[in-house]
Amino acid sequence: MDSGEDAAQRPLTLDIAGVGNEEPEAHAPSEVAAISSQPNSTDVLFPEESIDLDAEAFISPQDDSAASGSMMDKLNDQMMESVLISDSPNSEEDDVPIDSLLEQGEDKESLDSKEPEEEKKEDVKEEKTEAIPEQGTPDLSVEPVESSSAALVEKEEAEEKEKDLTKDMVTANQAADVGAPTPDSPKGQEEKVEVAKATAKEEPIPVCTIFSHGMQPKTLVPDGFQPTLVKSPSFSSGTNETPNKLAPLVCQPSPSLSKFFTDNGTVNPASDFFDSFTTSSSFISVSNPNAESPKAVTPSECQLSSGSSTVPSAEHQDAGTPSAYFSIGPQDSTPKPVAGPAEPAATMTTLQAVFSGSDDPFASALSLSEVDKRYDAWLPSEETRRVLISVATQQVNPVYVERDRLSMPGLKFDNLQGDAVKDLMLRFLGDQAAMKRQVLTANSVEQNFLGLKQLISTKNWRAAVDLTGRLLTAHGQGYGKSGQPTSHTTDSLQLWFVRLALLVKLNLFQNAELEFEPFGNLDQPDVYYEYYPTVYPARRGSMVPFSMRVLHAELPQYLNKPQESLDRLHSMRSVCEKILTNLEEGLAEDGSMMTLTQENRQASIQLWRSRLCRVMYSMANCLLMMKDYILAVETYHSIIQYEPQQRVQLLSGIGRIFLQIGDIRTAEKYFQEVEKTCEEKGTGPAQDTSVLMNKAFVYLSQNNYAEAHTCFSNPANFFSDANNNAAVCLLYLGRLKESLGQLESLVQQDPALYLHESVLFNLTTMYELESSRSMQKKQALLEAVACREGDSFNTQCLKLV
Amino acid sequence: MKAKVHSGLSQHKMDVNQAKQEHLLALKVMRLTKPTLFTNMPVTCEDRDLPGDLFGRLMREDPSTIKGAETLMLGEMLTLPQNFGNIFLGETFSSYISVHNDSNQVVKDILVKADLQTSSQRLNLSASNSAVAELKPECCIDDVIHHEVKEIGTHILVCAVSYTTQSGDKLYFRKFFKFQVLKPLDVKTKFYNAETDEVFLEAQIQNITTSPMFMEKVSLEPSMMYNVTELNTVASGKECSESTFGKMLYLQPMDTRQYLYCLKPKPEFAEKAGVIKGVTVIGKLDIVWKTNLGERGRLQTSQLQRMAPGYGDVRLSLEFIPDTVNLEEPFDITCKITNCSERTMDLLLEMCNTRSVHWCGVSGRQLGKLSPSGSLAIPLKLLSSVQGLQSISGLRLTDTFLKRTYEYDDIAQVCVVCPYLSPES
């Protein structure tokens, strides 16, 4: 079939010409196309040759002198010298070489992407060096301009002036660039530089202010604290700061902790949480009286102090709302679980009333142990299993397990405490305004789980991380304790989970990775209950919460190691599937021959299905991040069978993935499926919205911003993202002021909803586009943010710096 | 610090003019690439975990999550472009141009002009070239410009603003925005000539951008001489034909995809010309792609040209040949002999037996005179004495005018089978 001579023919590189659509203007796009598209005849004869693609600059520039009207003339005349690209530098002797002018201009005016400016800078420079000779070469094209510019000569002086001006502008601009991002005026620049200096001075210097304040009585006032940086917990020398004081004392298993706490007896000892959260274990100790439980806590009390979330009962969740906590008031009515068993506080009885179901401690204890078993189930690796069995059968004393088989975590970095919002206020709005900023810090809440939850729910995640640090320090896993033998409890692992989850939420991935590291793959023997037969008698399974495993698996993808994430997620998935198979085969979760009641089995199957689903979601998200769209879509699609109630959202999501790739037709197919599903179900309002949203996205992808805007602003589309999207569409329609007005009023009307990173980013971007006074407007936003948002607010979206 | 300064993203407040003169108007330019969808980062916990419902509640309250499926990463919130990004040949450059009156006086006769200077030409992109009579304080003139980029290399957007102040001064300033247009695709082609007049074109298209590309259309527009059949789908049953590239028609960065086309000369050309000789224009490739949220790009290659294979003076092609024949059973083939030279030939056909294939008939047959571009079909009979895939060789044509002999070996292959051993018999 293939004749011999063609076999030698190599692939031929082609030149590509832009599609020469007919332009209304008299310019010559078609000529360009022609030039680049007509290879020389030699090229035809030797088709192996690559044709140079840069067949540009063969056409002499068009001079646009055709315009009429005095003003137009003026514009155009001055434009003449701006045939910048093809001008050869030597054409104007004593003047600034136009190229260099351009180059200068380019530094600040090039529209090249700015984010990765640092990296790109080099590229740009390379391009420049390449570009200069190129610009120099087409002398031919310049000549007509020059020769015909006899008339220009007389103008030259004027032009020179103009050029001087531009030069100055450019240099001024350069200066401005170094000084401040958006100078309003030269004066403004200076000011800003000063400000910058000032803030540089005021940058939080690592000072252990906690200790310098040591003489003052401890208050819970949430304000007036300098950003503090606790260097390391070993500094703790005689202050009221209980957590720090406790630090050296508590490097022991937690059940014995209370000994230290009881004689301590101060306001909020870090002890609160420890004895509190181990709900289930103390329940078990109720049913196992010979277990050496340090203190006999009655169930009701235990529930009380433990915070509602430990018991997944409906009434309990009611109590779990933060309002319940807040109503307690941090000062007086602090639950003091460690204190005597007879606690007559009125608040307690009222709280007790909430847990109506707790009259029968034994029954609830039993059911709880079932729940424990269900939630804690996990399949350890073979090696770990062997160690656990030998510990259980008392062949090996846990003390003698090899060190490298143990998890020995410890804090890896100093406190994060800090508030970027306040820093910005100091810098831009002054001390006065900054003083008004009041956020909760780790010091201003109770040093226990309640305080921690309060910090989380008020979005003070940095402070919350600090608090977890203190609490972990109290548990002997503080700064520098990594690599030292320790013992784990349900609580300590929950604290680690919260800490690491918050670090991830704060985008502090490296820190999270560092602190995750001692845990290995979360399969070391000492993170299983079986490892502590005396502390947790008869309790089996993993101390590591499932959510922490998910977090651990997801983390590498944020650090550019998505493959590692996928590996971890796959092994989690197989464990989930194995457990589900075990359950379906009539075994217990871990494959043991234990009889489960039908009810418990069903509950367990449901739990593990939802966990499997969670893992699948993570896998799909990870694949999406890797841009492996085929597998991502497949995975999202497979979730539908487990979570049929999320069908609409998942199909819409898949459709959006296709839109992102640019495949609008396939996206529409999925959106049609969404519509069908909605029709079958009978339309609920939420589903109507997704149909509308999908429609709007399709219009958007067809460049039909007007229709997209109509869909987004449909009143049925009450979700916040729709309003934001409608405003975005307005900008593309050239209606900047309207768009701004809409977003501004949204932020004013419902700040809780619209003080969101992406909305604010859009708003500040438009401010920058609108006027030179964007700085003031951004600062106004900063003030709005300051009175609502916690210390975890991502200030980057305000684009103030 | 520098990086932070520059994170001000795509719109550029080049207050170029403030060194010498306070301008009353400010010009801002922002490239309008498509917005992006916000992705959130799900961090979840279970009710029994320490935070209880807290993480879940935080996620539900977050406006960027999908309600009811908060763990789905890809949200619905649109975010404006964060940086200039890349622009590629064939894409459309869109930009927002805003002129804002920063002063507290009314400004008159404002003329905003946006030109795009490329290495070869200058284009006016402004929607209107008429001046705006007056602009009140805090008001702005907005324009969204679009331009389909048709050249590679440096482009400079030149924005010029002229206006008259209240005191009657005529002022003028300009700003330059420079950007590079890059090449999005690498296209390589290769022709394969079939034994018949068909030509196969293989086109390798490589995505040399940094983002995935959905190839909406890659088609060959044939020149007037050819009909084209696209061979990039697998016909499966009804009208729905499946692409050879699978379900997803997108191309990851640096991925290459091969498209195959079969070109057949239209009968009128094939007959008239007899043989297509020398350089012929085959046609051009038309490529349409889309990226994020329908950002569109389109390119055409230049005319693809192909050197027709040289057939020498006499071309021998096969009109008919069976693919499978029985061992030691005669079979027929039909050869077509075409005179590709400029002179009349007087041809003599000889057949030399090879080890496996034997010709049945008289060797040294006179075929008569054949004028230029003339052709004749000759039926021939053969038999094979060896099983397997056998090559047909040993045809010799001699032009008695010039005493020149043309040899034709390996002109085709047949599969020879033994009928007696097959399970059917």
Automatic annotation (TrEMBL), chain A:
Residues 300-312 have a biased composition (Polar residues). Residues 1-28, 60-199, 288-343 are annotated as: Disordered. InterPro entries: TPR-like_helical_dom_sf, TPR_rpt. The keyword Cell inner membrane does not apply. Residues 105-131, 153-167, 187-199 have a biased composition (Basic and acidic residues). SUPFAM superfamilies: TPR-like. Keywords: ER-Golgi transport, Nucleus, Phosphoprotein, Repeat, TPR repeat, Transport. Signal peptide: none annotated. Component of the multisubunit TRAPP (transport protein particle) complex, which includes at least TRAPPC2, TRAPPC2L, TRAPPC3, TRAPPC3L, TRAPPC4, TRAPPC5, TRAPPC8, TRAPPC9, TRAPPC10, TRAPPC11 and TRAPPC12. Interacts with CENPE. This is Trafficking protein particle complex subunit 12. The lineage of its organism: Eukaryota, Metazoa, Chordata, Craniata, Vertebrata.
UniProtKB/TrEMBL annotation, chain B:
Pfam families: TRAPPC13_C (PF23643), TRAPPC13_M (PF23647), TRAPPC13_N (PF06159). One of its GO terms (cellular component) is TRAPPIII protein complex. Transmembrane segments: none annotated. Residues 23-181 form the Trafficking protein particle complex subunit 13 N-terminal domain. Residues 322-416 form the Trafficking protein particle complex subunit 13 C-terminal domain. Residues 185-309 form the Trafficking protein particle complex subunit 13 middle domain. Coiled coil: none annotated. It comes from the Eukaryota. Belongs to the TRAPPC13 family. Part of the multisubunit TRAPP (transport protein particle) complex. This is Trafficking protein particle complex subunit 13. The gene is TRAPPC13.
